């Protein structure tokens, strides 16, 4: 008996010691208020169940900056949208360790001198490079649009359905066969017939792998998730770097990153890991396109408004070219369509799950935009969670509703002042933001131009909030649609 009580006593002392050392702490003067949470897990449960609701509730009781605890990690959340610039410019808020953690835990590689590499590589997705990328993306997209009506998913040829015959498909599969396939080929060039590293099988493995993404970047070993391990094994079966570099249609980005990593004597496995990260980032374009397409189908008036806008832009251009030539659009043309722009922004607002987390490199006095100062501790993390802004009813009326024209000539206010960045779907650091948005826009233009598309009776879905932390949330379930080529349409081209 005595032995057992001694044992229990010792065990409780050990537990309390662990608690005091790792979990408990006292708030210091001028630190943000702490949100009360469970003894061991902190705020994990509420945060995981519905992050936006939890953060809004904490904002009510604590104000617009507060600290939460996820297991042993203290995380200060800045809720004030006006403090966005201060947050992104604070030099003690460091993204490097976060980026390292993702690369290491999820994709098993490390970048040597990541800042330099990302700065240089970032250039290859902007300016005139971006135009080149858009040209090849639009060429591949045109090919895939032809394929979806003439080939089944296994690549077997069919007659082109005539006389307005409909084809049916799952919407995600349809988006994968068009947008994802075009993104993939734009990045890695056209795969050869014998390649197993080809768009649709990579897509399927990515779908599996992404389910475990949050667990893995937090550092849980991938061996806990056999399905993920199997998917990763397939994903790293890639052509070697010399094979990729020999492809004329390889993207500038991958050419640059591969040569850079080879120069740093990095191993093939690390180059392949990095290729996957790049594909993972591009995957957001696929997700935005999926959602935009879904909302267009769910809100018929949005589809009609967009078709009308695109048709008017085509008619305007057609006055100046002969009938059998493609109508040519450039970047400015695509950017000048207000309804298209609003649909893409509204899509990102309703479906983004991005978490902008930074490590606090030094004890920092952080001044909010309203002049309030707070002390933040070295070793903690600090974050903004854009979905909580995107769903703030003071900024966006009826934030749960999709309103396709919400962003047409609109400005948004919080506490009486204009919010400069009302939609922050890709965080502040993504160099390919503009490219991703332009690719989604071009896809939608070509889609409404060439196809009739409808949701099948009774089909619906919504973003899966269990995946917060993913830049764009995946849907809870796929939906079935039917589509057919329009009898006649204008050929479009991007230059
Ligand atoms: C958070 O709290 C601040 C200060 O009390 C308030 O102005 C703001 O509207 C709140 N935000 C949300 C999303 O509730
Ligand atoms: C798109 O593909 C079709 C064949 O499916 C072709 O006739 C057309 O010229 C292509 N358009 C462009 C702009 O490449």
UniProtKB/TrEMBL annotation:
Which parts of the sequence bind heme?
A: 430
Q: Which UniProt keywords apply?
A: Endoplasmic reticulum, Heme, Iron, Lipid metabolism, Membrane, Metal-binding, Oxidoreductase, Steroid metabolism, Transmembrane, Transmembrane helix
Q: Name one GO biological process term.
A: cholesterol homeostasis
The cofactors required by this protein are: heme
Q: Which InterPro entries match?
A: CYP450_sterol_14alpha_dmase, Cyt_P450, Cyt_P450_CYP7A1-type, Cyt_P450_E_grp-IV, Cyt_P450_sf
Name where it's found: Endoplasmic reticulum membrane
PANTHER family the record matches? CYTOCHROME P450, CYTOCHROME P450 FAMILY 7
Q: Which domain of life is it from?
A: Eukaryota
Q: Name one GO cellular component term.
A: endoplasmic reticulum membrane
Which pathway is this protein assigned to?
A: Lipid metabolism; bile acid biosynthesis
Q: What is this protein called?
A: Cytochrome P450
Protein residues bound to substrate? 111, 284, 381
Q: Which organism is it from?
A: Potamilus streckersoni
- Which spans are transmembrane here? 6-24
């Amino acid at each position: 008996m005595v032995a057992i009580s001694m044992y229990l006593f010792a065990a409780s002392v050990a537990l309390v010691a662990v608690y005091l050392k790792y979990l408990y702490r006292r708030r210091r003067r001028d630190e943000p208020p702490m949100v009360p949470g469970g003894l061991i897990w902190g705020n994990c449960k509420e945060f995981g169940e519905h992050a936006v609701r939890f953060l809004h509730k904490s904002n009510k009781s604590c104000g617009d900056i507060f600290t939460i605890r996820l297991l042993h990690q203290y995380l200060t959340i800045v809720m004030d949208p006006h403090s966005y610039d201060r947050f992104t410019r604070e030099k003690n808020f460091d993204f490097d360790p976060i980026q390292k953690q993702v690369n290491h835990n999820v994709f098993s590689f490390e970048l040597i001198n990541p800042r330099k590499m990302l700065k240089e590589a970032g250039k290859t997705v902007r300016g005139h490079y971006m135009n080149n990328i858009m040209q090849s993306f639009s060429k591949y997209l045109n090919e895939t649009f032809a394929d979806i009506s003439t080939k089944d998913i296994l690549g077997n040829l069919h007659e082109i359905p005539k006389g307005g015959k409909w084809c049916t498909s799952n919407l995600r599969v349809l988006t994968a066969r068009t947008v994802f396939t075009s993104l993939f080929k734009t990045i890695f060039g056209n795969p050869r017939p014998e390649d197993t590293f080809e768009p649709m099988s990579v897509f399927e493995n990515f779908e599996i792998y992404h389910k475990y993404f949050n667990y893995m970047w937090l550092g849980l070993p991938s061996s806990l998730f056999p399905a993920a391990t199997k998917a990763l094994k397939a994903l790293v079966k890639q052509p070697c770097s010399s094979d990729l570099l020999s492809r004329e249609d390889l993207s500038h980005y991958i050419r640059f990153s591969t040569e850079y990593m080879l120069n740093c004597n990095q191993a093939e496995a690390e180059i392949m890991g990095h290729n996957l990260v790049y594909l993972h980032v591009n995957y957001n374009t696929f997700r935005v396109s999926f959602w935009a397409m879904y909302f267009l189908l769910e809100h018929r008036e949005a589809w009609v408004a967009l078709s009308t806008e695109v048709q008017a832009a085509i008619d305007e251009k057609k006055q100046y070219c002969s009938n059998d030539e493609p109508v040519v659009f450039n970047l400015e043309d695509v950017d000048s369509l207000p309804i298209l722009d609003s649909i893409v922004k509204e899509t990102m607002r309703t479906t983004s799950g991005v978490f902008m987390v930074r490590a606090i490199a030094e004890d920092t006095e952080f001044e909010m935009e309203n002049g309030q100062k707070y002390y933040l501790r070295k070793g903690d993390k600090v974050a903004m969670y854009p979905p909580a802004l995107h769903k703030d009813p003071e900024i966006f009326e009826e934030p749960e509703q999709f309103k396709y024209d919400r962003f047409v000539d609109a400005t948004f206010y919080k506490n009486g002042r204009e919010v400069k960045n009302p939609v922050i779907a890709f965080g502040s650091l993504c160099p390919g933001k503009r490219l991703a948005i332009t690719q989604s826009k071009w896809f939608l233009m070509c889609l409404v131009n060439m196809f009739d598309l409808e949701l099948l009776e009774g089909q619906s879905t919504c973003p899966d909030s269990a995946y917060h932390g993913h830049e764009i949330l995946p849907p809870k379930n796929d939906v079935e649609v039917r589509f057919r080529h329009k009898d006649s349409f204008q050929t479009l081209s991007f230059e």
